[in-house]
Amino acid sequence: MNGATPPWDFCVQPGPVITTAIHAGHVIRSEMLPWVAIEDRHRLREEDPLTDYFLAVGDSMLRANRSRFEVDLNRPREKSISTDPEDQWGLKIWKSDLPTDQIEKSRRLHDQFYAMMRDHCDAMIARFGRILLLDIHSYNHRRDGPDADPAPAPENPDIDLGATTMNHRIYGDLLERLAQDLRSVPVCGRRPHVGVNVRWEDGGNFPEWLHRIYGDDACVITLEYKKIFMDEWTGQANILALQHLREGLAKAVSGARLCLQEMQGNMS
Predict the structure, then answer these.
(1) What are phi and psi of 76, to 5 degrees?
(2) Is 45 helix (H, G, I), strand (E, B) or coil?
(3) 3-class DSSP state for residue 36?
(4) Which of 83, 147, 151, 211 is 20 to 30 A from residue 115's alpha carbon, by CA?
(5) What whole-number distance in Å separates Cα of residue 79 and Cα of residue 64?
(6) How far is 31 from 113, CA to CA, in rounded Å?
(7) Are 243 and 237 in contact (CB under 8 A)?
(8) Nearest to 12 by CA among 57, 53, 60, 51
(9) Ordered DSSP codes for 90-111
(10) How far is CA 35 from the centre of its chain?
């Protein structure tokens, strides 16, 4: 955990498709380590390791390097870091005496992230008319233990597309095509179960903020990958599953680009 690690890596390229993995990081800045109250392996389970593997399908790509527990970029500023376990699924991440100046330092990273994304999205919308932002996450499905049965599949799709704040009248066809293309590429010999708004009522603060700022100029979809691409208890990756899932996403994004182009053509 090197405190010199930048808070994120942002590869900026022109294009209407932006991919983000804002919970992929695990680093906590070194000056905060004396107040960490959780074992490293338990913290890792609640982060989204390997989700940055999917970023390459975008034009611009952002990977957060810092742990979501140092600063959660998908929560409002005041909730982006908290010493209250009630805010962290009952996990005690921080000792209660974490200094307020450290908390504020993390919140300033939150400010910087949102200002940076505002500048970038402004520029891409000005250039391309509309943007597609895919915010990539993952979730655990074996919470009862490594040897217990996984969570029921019908309520826990392999990929859950969060699309609660987007305008379905405008982007509904794009969303449906994205889902169909994701289903069309088998993962380790079987077709993935792809749902829409199955597990969460919203995608979090980041997509809500984007739609609040940009309205129908932004199509924001949260992709929640069930951790079928890794062992969530040991952290071991399933490379073949990762490759298949990324192939499916690449195909889906290609189709989504065509949908965006058609929309732009209709607006011309």
Answers:
(1) -60, 160
(2) helix
(3) strand
(4) 83
(5) 17
(6) 21
(7) no
(8) 60
(9) T---B-TT--HHHHHHHHHHHH
(10) 26
Tokens in use for 106? 């993390």
Are 148 and 35 in contact, with CB atoms under 8 Å apart? Answer: no
| N residues, the chain | 268
CA distance 174 to 10: 26
Q: Which residue reads 């980041």 in tokens?
A: 206
Give pTM, 2 decimals.
0.95
- Domains delineated in the chain: 8-267 (3.40.630.40)
CB-based contacts of 161, cutoff 8 Å, min separation 6: 175, 178, 179, 182, 194, 195, 196, 197, 221, 222, 223, 224
Give the span between the Cα atoms of 13 and 3, in whole angstroms. Answer: 27
- C-alpha 80/C-alpha 73 separation (Å) is 7
Residue type, 108: R
240 DSSP assignment: H
Specify the residue for token string 């309205």: 215
Condensed to tens digits (0 to 9), the pLDDT of residues 1-31 reads 444 789 999 999 999 999 999 999 999 999 9
Q: Which residues are CB-contacts of 174 (< 8 A; sequence separation ≥ 6)?
A: 132, 219, 256, 259, 260
pLDDT at 4: 76
